Amino acid sequence: MICRLTLAALLAAVAFPAAAQEAPRWTIAIHGGAGTIERSQMTPERDAEYRAALTAAVEAGAEVLRDGGSSLDAVQAAIELMEDNPLFNAGRGAVFTAEGTNSLDAAIMDGATLEAGAVAGVSRTRHPIALARAVMEQSGHVLLAGEGADAFAASVGLEQVDPSFFYTQRRWDQLIEVLTARGLPLPARPAGLGQEISAVRDPDDHRFGTVGVVAVDSQGHIAAGTSTGGTTAKRWGRVGDTPVIGAGTWAGRGCAVSATGTGEYFIRLTVARDICNLNDLNDMPIAEAAEAMISEVGAMGGDGGVIALTADGSVAFSMNTSGMYRGWANQDTAARVAIYADDVLETPGDD
User: Fold this and answer.
1) Catalytic residue at 210?
2) Is there a contact between 305 and 271 (Cβ–Cβ < 8 Å)?
3) Which one is catalytic: 210, 232, 249, 347?
4) Residues of the chain falling short of pLDDT 50
5) What is the pTM of this model?
6) Which residues of 15-52 are buried (b: 16+ CB within 10 A; e: fewer)?
């Protein structure tokens, strides 16, 4: 009987060969901030530098997903790369507060479990996004701030650095310009910075650079993460939307969003969560939902943008600014990136 069944199975396999196994499906999308980003004010060299950085970040996350890794791991891998890149207002490229320090915020959320972690006012942890994930997975809390957040990071073995690690001449020069224009006192120059003026002069770039990633893995699990240095010359311990779950960062079972822009408006409108609600509960296409919420931000006087992703791999980018650093990839398409609002960047889910 065993031999006959085995033979029958073999004959069936020959007569009806199994269909080729479909490659696991996954998608990742990233942003590096939205703001006044004009072609006329960007040198070709600077343009190419940003595009290379965006491509590298997309690929860092895509590599995780391609190998069967989780959306959380992909989000963290891509954001850590951008946190180490001084082009972006996160980690090592963070802007300065009015006191001449760096104050870093981050958040991450697991759509499969609705667990989330966030940090605000971090100054010694090399990768705030890794700390946000540790808060989610190891602290029993959602949001930690300031020295306590850094102390928790050290307690769980995350890399600690001297605050000077985050200092860059470019961001210091921006701080001096803003404080001078506002008539505010100038802080002492941080140790480790020279006296030179940075040769890098991006237009109005104190207003953008926040980084974020959304991803869905081959298991269909969604995650979102965001990391930022906040706004240049911020005062009084200001915290924006990035670490506020539902405002600048959100992931549910069917949708994920990461935002960038004037955080006060994103907080008041709970932009990230409401985009997913419009998509999940109102059955609005994700691109329309993103556009609707960014329109509300603009109507209130705010600016910025979002990246949004659904469980089927559809991606949406929406902004009310002249540009947003952005990109995506999936199992069928290598990294594609864009900078300016009028860049053509077809995405999964486009008609």
Assistant:
1) yes
2) no
3) 210
4) 1-20, 204-206
5) 0.90
6) eeeeeeeeeebbbbbbbbbbbebeeeebeeeeeeebbe
